[in-house]
Amino acid sequence: MANFCCGNFQHSRESDAMESSIPPASSTDSTASVSPHAVPAAASAAPALSDADIRFVIDLCVEAGEIAVKMREGVTVETKTSADDLVTGADKALSALLVQKLSERFPNDLVLSEEAPWEGTVTTKRRWLIDPIDGTKYYVDNTGQWCVMIGLVVDKREVWGCFYMPAYGVALAGGPAFGKALKYTKADGQTSAIEPLPALVLPSSLPSSLPSSLPCSLPCDRPLRVLVSNNDLKAHPWVKDIVNVEIIRGTSLGIDVFELLNGSADVFVHIRPTLKYWDTAAPGAVALALAMEVGSEQGDYLEYSFASPSHQPHVVIGKKGALSWWRQSYKK
Question: Which terminus of the chain has fewer CB atoms gathered within 10 Å of its CB, N or C?
């Protein structure tokens, strides 16, 4: 078992901002008398994650990813709801490990995993959402386009998350209530470092399909690069006909957010109501920490109601202007 203990991290002073507390809950209903596109303030009376907590979760995410790498050869593979919905022995083993470790570290929080029974009626405000291997198909195919994801949801909103991509030796962590996002990098299989990432700031420019009065960071001098899954394209082939768009095939949502950060893509969209809370909690929180937009065709944020683990509206993540672009482009 790989051991990436917190003592290996070269911790920057700039990342001390991660210890800032989550703003207290508002005394009024933030959803009353507001536009459906309004973003409610992040609200929670729960204590903030300490710097030690944050490093613990990053370390755990990395450890789980390295275990999965070692387990891949000869791993058992089963199907769940369809031939494309796979689960492996590694998914189950990592799920058990992550649930156990997080439950021990945060005994007052609810820990939920894709590979464990769903609990939607528990009233605790803090919920950890685990996707032990996001992109199991790519894990089985050994393409490297998968990651381990751990997200924290408070008062129906993603507030912090971490995902580790073993093929890149990189983990990203952060959230809208905790200051700057952090990037973990592994070098030579032994050393590691954590560094703060700046918010994603790009020159203001507009694609031709958006009104000139709308500030955004989407390109106007090239096609818009849109991440879409193969299954979404099969169900909604009209996406390929949107003017001035280059389609990029999406994989794991964590990998897709990494592509947005690297500038390889501009917008991620998921149209079918198949994304689960554990798919979005970690990458959504990190994207928000990087000043990306995270929302849907209905609102400027994602809500985690917990009655069921599924997002019913579309999920859109991207650079500034992404939500407005999608609302104009979407064929109802």
Answer: C
